[in-house]
Amino acid sequence: MQKYSLNVKTRNPSNKGSLKQLRKAGEIPGNIYGKGNARAISVSTIAFRNVNKEIGGGAGLIELKDETGELALTHVKGVQVNPISRIIEHIDFHEVARGESFDSKVPVVLTGVNDCLGVKNEGGMLDHKTLELEIRCRPSKLPENISVDVSNLNVGDAIHVDDLEAIEDVEFLNTGIQVIVSCQPPTVAVAADTESADDSKETPEGEAASEASEGAEETDSDNSAES
């Protein structure tokens, strides 16, 4: 389990105006949910971004510490981002209890991509359909990511949730038939074959137009000879 730390400040639930001022001051408003209650907090924008860089796209637990020294072990449940400015506007943290199972989303990482048989030998393309998986585990067993080896995939093959290797004390919550990644046929070759077939196909209309053109050329030639 990867654990990170963040200092937070307790805040009173605010109106839109005060939230705007809070963001201008370099703080992100948020809430901590869990244990039957919710607490309003704020966290430094810079500090949160630094932790995000440390996590690096993987899964990790964040220990929040407020001004009184109270600690809360959490994971990020949701992040609200402004679609225009891309500024983080709100964060929801979910508190977890040590030793108790909780649900989380974990990113899927593909390995063996450069050695994939279907890509190397058949010109296939990898289609990474499931970017993250839902799991259930205790905090100490939270994996940073789920690694999936694609080196033995041939064109037409796929890896499903049921095909994943078991991880001790980790339960996959997605349905077993869900596709993680597949190797698709090469689309360029298909396009080329289609074009070739189109070129070789002669329609009755095309033949008639060609014959008419040839007939017109012969007539022009005869008229020229008579004159």
Comma- or semicolon-separated keywords:
RNA Polymerase Alpha Subunit, Chain A, domain 2; 2 domains; alpha+beta; elongated; 227 residues
Description:
It is a single chain. By secondary structure, the chain is of the alpha+beta class. The chain has 2 domains: 3-96, Ribosomal Protein L25, Chain P (Beta Barrel); 103-188, RNA Polymerase Alpha Subunit, Chain A, domain 2, CATH 2.170.120.20. It is 28% helix and 37% strand. The chain has a 6-stranded mixed barrel. Strand 4 and strand 5 form a beta hairpin. The protein is elongated. The N and C termini lie far apart (97 Å). The model is unreliable at 206-214 and 216-227 (pLDDT under 50).
Mean pLDDT: 84
What percent strand? 35-45%
Approximate helicity band: 25-40%
Using the coordinates above, name the CATH class of the largest domain: Mainly Beta
Distance between the termini: 97 Å
Please tell me how large the radius of gyration is.
Answer: 30 Å
Helix-strand blueprint:
Blueprint: E1 3-10, H1 16-24, E2 27-34, E3 37-44, H2 45-55, E4 61-65, E5 71-81, E6 88-95, E7 102-111, H3 117-122, E8 125-128, E9 132-137, E10 146-149, E11 158-160, E12 171-172, E13 179-184, H4 187-200, H5 204-226
Parallel strand pairs: 1-4, 2-6, 7-10
Antiparallel strand pairs: 1-3, 2-3, 4-5, 5-6, 7-9, 8-13, 9-12, 11-13
